[in-house]
Amino acid sequence: MDIVLLGAPGAGKGTQAELLAEWLSLPTVSSGVLFREAIEAGTPLGVRAKEYIDRGELVPDQVTVDMIAERLARPDCANGVILDGFPRTVAQAEALEGLLARMGRRLAVVAYLKVSPEVLVQRLSGRWTCANCGAVYHEVLHPEATKGVCDNCGSPLTQREDDTPEVQRRRIQVYTESTAPVIAYYRDKGLLSEVDGDQSVDAVQRDLRSVITAVQSQGGAG
Ligand code: AMP
């Protein structure tokens, strides 16, 4: 089962993707996490991506699609994936359809986490991330068990460099210009399910699971 989570920066995609991954025993594929890993490792992809990420701009489509294609081809993705942060443009959405079709697959669910602007700002400001496994925490809304330490892997938590107010503003603007059309794209295809993302982590997860269960029971999990 292949699932896409859509939503603005700070909508909770990373947190919800991790919870879904555990529930469905599927890997999460997060373009943001993959870019940050490449930056950390100092690869040519990382050097290229950093120029864009630091400014809150999107990494070019071809670079992003190639990275995702390579990730989807790995054995752990054979039964499906939960995509977080990809696709972010209509061109990426079209490319994803092609990539999945070549593997004899198609998207089962596109869930849009709809979050009000005030909540987005609050979520982005208290966000901490594990640079090792990509898990996301929030000082108030979703704190880690031991301060500053990742619950999953025990690594230290850090704040993302692109979570500064100025870059955040640009990321939200880029989202409106480039990613909001992806919502319309999937809505037109009849694939979009909207979830109220202003709710608590548990309530959003509960709603996401009902959407997925409904699709599974219709046999649409191909
Ligand atoms: P995220 O962790 O999803 O918020 O992504 C962090 C940054 O990585 C974004 O602000 C973009 O600069 C870049 N990025 C992540 N995913 C994509 C994508 N699908 N297309 C282009 N750039 C991306």
The name of the CATH topology is Rossmann fold
Order of helices and strands: EHEHHHEHEHEEEHEH
Q: Report the major sheet.
A: 5 strands, parallel
The total count of helices amounts to: 8
The low-pLDDT segments are none
Q: What form results from the Cα inertia axes?
A: globular
Percent in helix: 40-55%
In CATH's first tier, which class applies? Alpha Beta
How many structurally independent domains?
1
Compute the CA-based radius of gyration.
Answer: 16 Å
Oligomeric state: single chain
- Average pLDDT, rounded to a whole number, is 93
CATH homologous superfamily annotation: P-loop containing nucleotide triphosphate hydrolases
Instruction: Report how far apart the termini are.
Output: 6 Å
Strand arrangement in the largest pleated sheet: 2-3-1-4-8
Identify the bound ligands: adenosine monophosphate
Broad structural category: alpha/beta
**Total beta strand runs:** 8
- Using the 3D structure, state the CATH architecture: 3-Layer(aba) Sandwich
Question: Care to describe what's here?
Answer:
There is one protein chain. The protein has 222 residues and is of the alpha/beta class. Helix content is 49%, strand content 15%. The protein has a 5-stranded parallel beta sheet, with helices on both faces. A 3-stranded antiparallel beta sheet has the order 6-5-7. The radius of gyration is 16 Å and the shape is globular. The mean pLDDT is 93. Adenosine monophosphate (AMP) binds at residues 9, 31-32, 35, 52-53, 56-59, 64, 85-86, 88, 92, 162, 171.
